UniProtKB/TrEMBL annotation:
Keywords: ANK repeat, Repeat
SMART domains the UniProt entry points to: ANK
Organism name: Penicillium antarcticum
InterPro entries on file: Ankyrin_rpt (IPR002110), Ankyrin_rpt-contain_sf (IPR036770)
Membrane-spanning residues: none
Lineage: superkingdom: Eukaryota
ANK repeat segments: 23-45, 57-79, 91-115, 159-181
Keyword Repeat on entry: yes
Protein name in the entry: Uncharacterized protein
Length: 216
């Protein structure tokens, strides 16, 4: 029996659409995580659906859809106009930060287009979505964030590292180039140990990155 059929039968029999299981999650939470678009469409049509039900980690259905890159589901949830777009979980993360960290560029674009997300939101470790994506070399997501012209390219985490530091440390030359091209990045900043992006590039043997920092 398909997921959609099961959902229809449960709803017809008067099942609680907001029922929470032993893990603290609702049917909408599971459907969003799995990308079951048809099931979500059915649930959204019902009355009294809690779009922002939170599980024990503080994740709403939008978190689960964003983290797993389900673009169609994220779009459905956003189109209800009743979903919380920028909630924070218990580690300070948002749907945007989870989509960005997992390189789901289409989901990132959907969330950015709402104009209602904090692009510089910081998680438990004090890092922003740009910090994480710069470290991982997710060029497209980095470009999307930069193109908003609203992201702080020099945001510092507790160790004094900006997104440039993270890109340099991991040898992400393409990201380093993107950041430098904004002409807003401070390449001479020092972290809490007195190191600069250039000194870290040299220390790690990232010659292409060191050259970008020296000559761009």
């Amino acid at each position: 029996m398909g997921n959609e059929t099961t959902a229809r039968l449960s709803m017809r029999e008067g099942g609680d659409i907001n029922v929470v299981d032993d893990t603290g999650r609702t049917p909408l939470s599971y459907a969003a995580a799995k990308g079951f678009q048809a099931v979500i469409e059915l649930l959204i049509e019902t009355e009294n659906l809690n779009l922002d039900s939170m599980d024990p980690r503080g994740w709403t259905p939008l978190f689960w859809a964003a983290e797993n890159g389900h673009e169609a589901v994220v779009k459905l949830l956003l189109e209800t106009r009743n979903v919380s777009i920028d909630p924070k979980d218990f580690w300070g993360r948002t749907p945007l930060s989870m989509a960005a960290q997992n390189n789901h560029d289409t989901v990132v674009k959907l969330l950015l287009n709402t104009g209602k997300v904090d692009m510089d939101s910081r998680g438990y470790w004090g890092r922003t979505p740009l910090s994480y994506t710069a470290a991982k070399g997710y060029n497209t997501v980095v470009e999307l964030l930069i193109q908003t012209d609203k992201v702080n390219v020099n945001s510092m985490d507790p160790r004094g590292w900006t997104p440039l530091f993270w890109a340099v440390d991991n040898g992400q030359a393409a990201v380093v180039k993107l950041l430098l091209e904004t002409e807003k990045v401070n390449r001479d900043l020092k972290d809490f140990w007195g190191r600069t992006p250039l000194s870290i590039a040299n220390q790690n043997g990232h010659k292409a990155v060191a050259e970008l920092l020296s000559h761009t």
